[in-house]
Amino acid sequence: MKRYFFIINSNNTKAVKTFNRLKKELDKEKISYRTFYTEHKGHAVEIAKKIIYINKDSIKAIIAVGGDGTIHEVYNGIKDHPDIPLGFISGGSGNDIVRVLAKQIKSVKSQIAYLRRNRLIKTDSGMLHLLGRSMKDQVFLSAVGIGLDGEVARYTNEASYKKYLHKLRLGTFAYVITLFKVLRSYKPVSIHIEIDGRSHSFDTVWLVAIGNMPYYGGGMKICPEAQYNDGILDVCIVHNLTLTKLLMLFISVFWGGHVKVKGVTQFRGRNISVNTDRPVAIHADGEYKGTTPVSIEINKLSVPIKV
Hints:
Layout: E1 3-8, H1 13-28, E2 33-37, H2 43-55, E3 59-66, H3 68-78, E4 86-90, H4 96-101, H5 108-116, E5 120-130, E6 138-140, E7 143-147, H6 148-158, H7 160-167, H8 172-183, E8 189-195, E9 198-211, E10 233-239, H9 243-252, E11 264-269, E12 271-276, E13 281-284, E14 287-291, E15 294-306
Parallel strand pairs: 1-2, 1-3, 3-4
Antiparallel strand pairs: 5-6, 5-15, 7-9, 7-13, 8-9, 8-12, 9-10, 10-11, 12-15, 13-14
């Protein structure tokens, strides 16, 4: 018998409460499932790998219950098995992946309907490789951020106020608070970026965003035209702005208005490498991954998603 395997972020109160409500209906509806709770950062990757190793022939889908970080970890655990569908029940602070692929699954009733459906779509994914280091390649679904936004993601995930705001369902504000903290000391960098063999250089760069989907950071529409299934990554470079203009730009990013501002340059491509004059932070799906230099490539229609 095929069943669902749920991986729940136990450090996320919203995720646990969401699944507890769903569990009652799962039992009532006699839907076959098993549950696993994460105990530490990176644990969802390990759990997903073990589920596949032990239960490969009985997996209907592996469902991440949490935010983008949980989905990111689960996908990195199943990425070598393109026949295993990935699903998700929203329970995080950012929810940028869910915002694009699963807007409808909020109530318990709609979650049960979601599980009852036998519908899959394919989405692209991105591959991230930290150049000159032996770390394993990482895959991502939504976006990569390099520079200021990488630092913001890094410190937000470590911040005590993130959990507090999470409980109040104000998770997005954690990123805003961290932005102002990081801006006190962050200095822009010079970058050299290569996109499909074409080279570009920029000075005074605040951030480089590379999007497979439009959103990151809890609803910031950083790459407004990005499509999850077009085989292309969208690139947004924010440069040559004063701090005041950067803050004004930050307001408009929530509806994508920033792309009309002088100092925002956009590209599109399949293979991208970024070098900076000093190492700066990188996040993928909101999870800190390390520092530049980095190369990124698109994997077209590589992920089966339960919708």
